[in-house]
Here is the input.
Amino acid sequence: MAAVLNSNVASLWASKNLQGAQSKMADSVERLSSGLRINRASDDAAGLGITNALTQQINGANQGVRNLNDGISMVQTAEGAIAAAQEMAQRILTLATQGANDILGSTERNAIRAEMRQLMVAIDGIGGRTKFSGNSLLNQTLAGTTAITLQASNNTTDTITLAAGAFRNIGVGFLTHTGTNAGSILTNSTYGIADGAAAGTNAVTDATSGQASTLINKINVTADGSLNAASFTAILTAADQYISRLSTQRSLLGAYQGQIEFTVGNTTELSSNLSAARSNVQDTDYASETASLTKGQILQQAATAMLAQANQMPNVILSLLK
Here is the structure.
């Protein structure tokens, strides 16, 4: 190399290497301090795209788990309400069995029917007050088909559909009184096929009725003065059918809860695996990065020392000029 004064090539190279060492050290310090290997797109453009795609899946799965847990709470709320109604229906069944006994008189049977009606009022009240997040849970008519859909992840097709049959109205429903004797089906004995009235005089349209519509009609069907064992046998049959329908409804809700719980487990595992995959791409490997930092520190010190030496090299020219 020629001995020149205007361009200290050795100093330029030493300066360049010092800048490179300092840049790598800055990258290592940033990664070690943030815990992330990718802090900006220039660190790893492809890796950043993979990380964002994985983050989308993870966020969707995590929210899906929360959605499904809300769904479990909703199903449990509905099932608990049906269980309470079923317990009261069992009492109606017991009372109907008692009323079917021929040794009872009309006073006793009227008292039994009065208790049955109050139990039906309570059952209807359960259906009305059973709500979740302000939404009525047991309001599906017998002809209703509105299902409830739970979103399990950010995939629009990843859903669990709960059929309308699981959320049938457990009360008397929406019965239409078309006869001459107006009144409440629950509180007025002259509603339905009423006391002393011929069939059809006070007709009821029950195409959109609740699960208990048949039972309340049987309770109201006979005139007070002609209550007999046959009346209570009909109530007994209707109560037995009503309890069976509630059992079917509860079983469906229980099956849905099991399905949702398994889906929660699977979605939670999916989120964990995706998080591990994202960590491999995005997070800092501290063992590797601390080794790079140590290497950078040594290179910086060496480059600084060599730059000092290179800056002294033009002094040789002075000795030539003496």
